[in-house]
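Sample A.
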Amino acid sequence: MRMTIRVEGMSDIRRNLGKMLKAIDRGAVEEIITDAVEPVANSARHYAPKESGRLADSIISSTQATEPVRSAEVEVYVGPTEDVDYALPVEFGTPDGVVGPGQFYPGTAPHPYMRPAFDEGVDRAIKTIAQNLVDRALEAGS
């Protein structure tokens, strides 16, 4: 006994898959990721110390990373801009040290702002990215 299966509409499937791929090009992926990580940036701004407000104001989410990660096809940077040179010492603190003859520097305690924001928001960001990519592709393919 022989069974024959006939599939119709393959050209429609190919056409719709092509539309879906175009809908999630690099620009769309960057936009979706940048939007999804903005809540992480907002949380970091909230957790950042507000002595002058400069650190909190400098926190961005951008596709223009300060140091590119060459292994990533699309990368989004979330954190302070380069002009706030004290951002890392605030996050991680500084050790005690000697700064000159008879001058002792007591160091500073860490005041994490990026790590709590990341921990709080990364799962939601990943889910948002996945859902928005699927939604965009399905919208284009229908």
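Sample B.
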Amino acid sequence: MRYLNGLRSSRKLEKECFRNIEMQWLLEDIRPNYHSISDFRKNNPAALKTCSNSLSFSERCRFNSRGNHCY
């Protein structure tokens, strides 16, 4: 989600957690600071890569009237 919205820095993600109502709902009103976000990204590279790969695949898939079409 963050890359789709052009947010790459931990400080910008922190601001988005306070500003964006959808983010507040997704995070159940938990508002992490930039240091916590940065530590999570540093400590969980494999999980983030998996999420990134899943998003990449879903971006390549298009839904049409006959079902899913992936290329």
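B remarks: Residues 1-45 form one domain. Strands lie at 61-64, 67-70.
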